[in-house]
Structures are given as structure tokens and as C-alpha cells.
Amino acid sequence: ALALSLRGVQHTFAANKVVKGIDLDIAPGEVVCLLGPSGCGKTTLLRIAAGLEVVQEGAVSLDGQAIAKPGKRHVPPEKRNVGLAFQDSALFPHLSVLENVTFGLKQLPSGQRRARAIELLGQLGMADYVDTYPHMLSGGQQQRVALARALAPTPKLMLLDEPFSSLDARLRDRIRDDTLHVLKKLGSATLLVTHDPEEAMFMADRIALMRDGKIVQTGTPRELYCTPIDPFVVTFFGEVNELEGVVKGGVVQTPVGAVDASWLPDDSDVQVMIRPEALRIKERDLPSDAHDHSHVVMAKLLGRSSLIHLCAHGEDGQEAHLHARVPGVFLPQEGQPIDIDLDHSQVFIFP
Ligand code: ADP
Ligand code: MG
């Protein structure tokens, strides 16, 4: 049976409809990330799955059992066998780290609770803190304990709402890594809410990208990144160059070359979206005042990559200002003439 199934779920606060008909399935052991901008309804949907909001419209099933139907049935959160962790999960301040984690393990014989809690704390890098109290821990350590507490009972479904976003960047990478490891080891199906596309791509078997109360596209990280179904999906995963064009003879002419659009009728107006990493730059041996050629406007080192602002000149005299991203240190002079090669797999055309 599916670990979680949402069918036709809608939700309204006062007169404000924030969830507008969501279908979503999570298979056993699958990690699904609900990704989307702030305010699009992610937390509301997760709260509905958890039973923290009563279903107004649609149906929720956990492990093949209908557990919520409007006006008919509402299984409360504590009876749903789900693990919950939020951005700032509160620990019980009067309980030690170990007691916080054993709290949810009432179903285990008492002799096994301690071993189970210590195992989970160890996997999340907190083995040295079992007798510590929450106020003595950093935010990141408290968050690890909250994750251990949610995971310790091995729920069939984990519901995690931005569980890493209160952590600083370096710590976040490690805790994500540890958490994914534990989720996969336990085989818990997981719905993880995040607004961070990189986090979703790292954690997810599948991503459901939401916008304004609806799911725009569902698929593997690779499917969303490489075959986005609309401009919103493209832009959500990072900055893009946007050009306008017209289809002629099955192609769109751009200042960086012709792009295939053979599935669209001639004379269609289209939007051409070019990821910065699609632009491959080669320096040309020309006088630097050759401004009728493509040339560098500005180059900045950003660390792992360099950002190049460039002016592209097409063969037919078209011109465009574009941003390119090149791996490593690449700092050509301002005015440097260049050739631009296009990686067509990072170019998308929409009518
Ligand atoms: P996200 O988690 O994607 O940022 P939320 O689900 O928290 O989005 O919120 C979606 C919309 O619903 C927002 O406009 C928010 O202001 C509104 N909202 C959330 N919770 C409530 C509530 N309890 N009462 C009224 N409006 C709410
Ligand atoms: Mg939220």
C-alpha cells in the first residue's frame, strides 16, 4: 500500500483558498520533497497529512487506510503512526536528550528504549550528548535531537517541515546527509517540505513542485531540472537568461545560434530560456575593439564558478546581454572577444 495518498485535497483559510486540489502519492520508503516558494501552501498540506488540520475537501490515506474524509472521519495526529519534525521543533526542556528521544518509544520494552535512542542519536552525531539538557545545546544540536525523536519509533511516514532551515550552511549539509542516511536505513517514507531547490534535489527520490496551491510538476530531480514543463519550473531552479523569438523553419534564431523548435508551428512567438551554464565561452584572438563580435562585459569570480556578463552578437546582427556561468576561475578582460557555444540540453523553449 502507499505510505501516503492525498486525493483532491483543498483547503481554505477564511476566504483564502491556499490548497487548490492536490493529488500526491508516496510509496513505502520513498522520499518526496514538496518544494515551492514561501506561502504556496506546503506547510498547510503537510499539516493536513499529519492530522493537524481537519480535511475540508478531498481524502487522505495512510498505509492504505482512509484516515480523513471531510465531515466523516478524522484520525488524530497521535494515532497516525507518523513522525513529525519542524523548522524549530521544541524539545521538552525538563527532559535530557536521551529522555526526549525515548519519550516516543513507549511501545518498546523499557530495556530496549535506551539502546534504540542511543543508536539514533549516534547516527545523527549526538552520541556524546545523551545526558545533556536542551538549553545546553546549540540550535543545530537541538534540531538533531528533534529528528532523532521523530525517527526513533520508526514511523511508516515521516513528515518534515523545513527541518534544516534554521541551521547555518555548513552544519546544514552534514545534518541533511546524516538524516537522509537514517531515512534510507529505516526505510521510512518521507514527505519533506522545503523552499530550497538544492535541498530538494539532494534529499528527494521525487520532487513535487508547488506554486500557488497547486502542484506544477512531479518527477525525479533530473526530470524537473532537465525536462521542465513550464517557465516557472526552469526559473525555480536558478537564474536563467530569457529571450523572445519567433519560430522560422522549425528553429528560433538567437544571438547565440539557432535553437530547435520543430514541434512548434512557424511564426509562433516563443520564450527562449538559456541557463547560464549553457553558454560555453572560448576567447578569440581578435583586436579587443572588435565590438561587432561577441565580447565580455564583466567577469567576477564567485568561488566555485565565475560569472561572466557578456554581449552576444548573432550572425544576423541580433544582440543580447547574457549571463554565463563557468566552472572554476575564469576571468577574461572586459572587451575580450569570444566565441559562444551553446549546450542545447540547458536551453528550453516555451510558446
Ligand atoms: P508555505 O508553507 O508554502 O510557506 P503555508 O501553507 O504556510 O505556505 O501558507 C499558505 C497560505 O496560507 C499563506 O498565504 C498563509 O498566510 C496562509 N495561512 C497559513 N496558515 C494559516 C492560518 N492558520 N490562518 C490563516 N491563513 C493561513
Ligand atoms: Mg511553510
TrEMBL record:
Keywords (A to Z) from UniProt: ATP-binding, Cell membrane, Ion transport, Iron, Iron transport, Membrane, Nucleotide-binding, Transport
Protein name, as recorded: ABC transporter ATP-binding protein
Organism from which the protein derives: Vreelandella zhaodongensis (Halomonas zhaodongensis)
Single GO molecular function: ATP binding
Entries under SMART domains matching the protein: AAA (SM00382)
ABC transporter domain: residues covered: 4-237
Pfam families from the UniProt entry: ABC_tran (PF00005)
PANTHER family with a match to the protein in the record: SPERMIDINE/PUTRESCINE IMPORT ATP-BINDING PROTEIN POTA (PTHR42781), SPERMIDINE_PUTRESCINE IMPORT ATP-BINDING PROTEIN POTA (PTHR42781:SF4)
